[in-house]
């Protein structure tokens, strides 16, 4: 069964710290992988999309890496800020149709 | 552009009632999706559509129906509401075509409580 797991479920860090969020998937034959941010009571905002042929993508203080062979992706957040506090979701797609399989998310809290 | 809009924002239903969750997008996206999110969980795909007149089941379609008569609208119908359908429902869309256009855009969600 194709599953996506995110560990830890929650993470609390002091402001300014660099941090890594983890995502693992059981079937390595992915088409692409996306990282989303979800603020409480809100919809999802796409942060980064990595195609299966890529190793990483960067946007500002965010860097997402992909290791298909090990079934893992990481989201690196540099110099964290309180405004980064949110739930981060990882999702994989196995074809061009875009059907996403989501992890449970990691709830991040950045303390001032 | 308004992006992806969903109505209502919140609704309480009694067991056995029916309702339609509305979703619309003004980005001329071909693909549209309905997901549900239960507390502390990721999203699960209910139904999706690759264009007007074409729909298909996702991972958890039981108890739901969809239609796609226009490119813009993708309503989700709940028949005979059950407590297990208490959830937050998200609609999403994306453009078909080039790889860089595969990002999905999400609506703000509809919170549904079935009592």
Tag the structure with descriptive keywords.
heterodimer; A: 112 residues; mainly beta; six-stranded mixed β-sheet; five-stranded antiparallel β-sheet; 11 strands; 0% helix; B: 115 residues; seven-stranded mixed β-sheet; four-stranded antiparallel β-sheet; globular
Topology:
The complex is a heterodimer of chains A (112) and B (115).
Chain A: E1 4-7, E2 10-14, E3 19-25, E4 32-38, E5 44-51, E6 56-59, E7 62-67, E8 72-77, E9 86-93, E10 100-102, E11 106-111
Parallel strand pairs in A: 2-11
Antiparallel strand pairs in A: 1-3, 3-8, 4-5, 4-9, 6-7, 7-8, 9-10, 9-11
Chain B: E1 4-7, E2 10-13, E3 19-25, E4 31-37, E5 43-51, E6 54-57, E7 64-66, E8 76-78, E9 87-94, E10 105-106, E11 110-114
Parallel strand pairs in B: 2-11
Antiparallel strand pairs in B: 1-3, 3-8, 4-5, 4-9, 5-6, 7-8, 9-10, 9-11
Notes on the structure:
The complex is a heterodimer of chains A (112) and B (115). Chain A is mainly beta and 112 residues long. Helices cover 0% and strands 57% of the residues of chain A. In chain A, strands 2, 4, 5, 9, 10 and 11 form a six-stranded mixed β-sheet that branches. Chain A has a five-stranded antiparallel β-sheet with strand order 1-3-8-7-6, with no helix packed on it. The N and C termini of chain A lie far apart (41 Å). In chain B, β5 and β6 form a beta hairpin. Chain B has no helices and eleven strands. Chain B is an all-beta fold and 115 residues long. The termini of chain B are far apart. The mean pLDDT of chain B is 93. The chains are: A mainly beta (112), B mainly beta (115). Chains A and B meet through β4, β5, β9 and β10 of A and β4, β5, β9 and β10 of B.
């Amino acid at each position: 069964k194709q599953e996506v797991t995110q560990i830890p479920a929650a993470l609390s860090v002091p402001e300014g710290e660099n941090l890594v969020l983890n995502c693992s998937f059981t079937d390595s034959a992915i088409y692409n992988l996306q990282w989303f941010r979800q603020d409480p009571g809100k919809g999802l905002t796409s942060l980064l999309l990595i195609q299966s042929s890529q190793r990483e993508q960067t946007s500002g203080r965010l860097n997402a890496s992909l290791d298909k062979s090990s079934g893992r992706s990481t989201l690196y957040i540099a110099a964290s800020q309180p405004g980064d506090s949110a739930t981060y979701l990882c999702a994989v797609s196995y074809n061009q149709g875009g059907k996403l399989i989501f992890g449970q998310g990691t709830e991040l809290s950045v303390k001032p | 552009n308004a992006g992806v809009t969903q109505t209502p924002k919140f609704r309480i239903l009694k067991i056995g009632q029916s309702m339609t969750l509305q979703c619309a997008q003004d980005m001329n996206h071909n693909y549209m999706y309905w997901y549900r999110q239960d507390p502390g969980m990721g999203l699960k795909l209910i139904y999706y559509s690759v264009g007007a007149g074409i729909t298909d089941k996702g991972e958890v379609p039981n108890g739901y129906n969809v239609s796609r008569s226009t490119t813009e609208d993708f309503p989700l119908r709940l028949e005979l509401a059950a407590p297990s359908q208490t959830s937050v429902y998200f609609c999403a869309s994306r453009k078909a075509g080039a790889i860089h256009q595969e990002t999905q855009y999400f609506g703000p969600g509809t919170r549904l409580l079935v009592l």
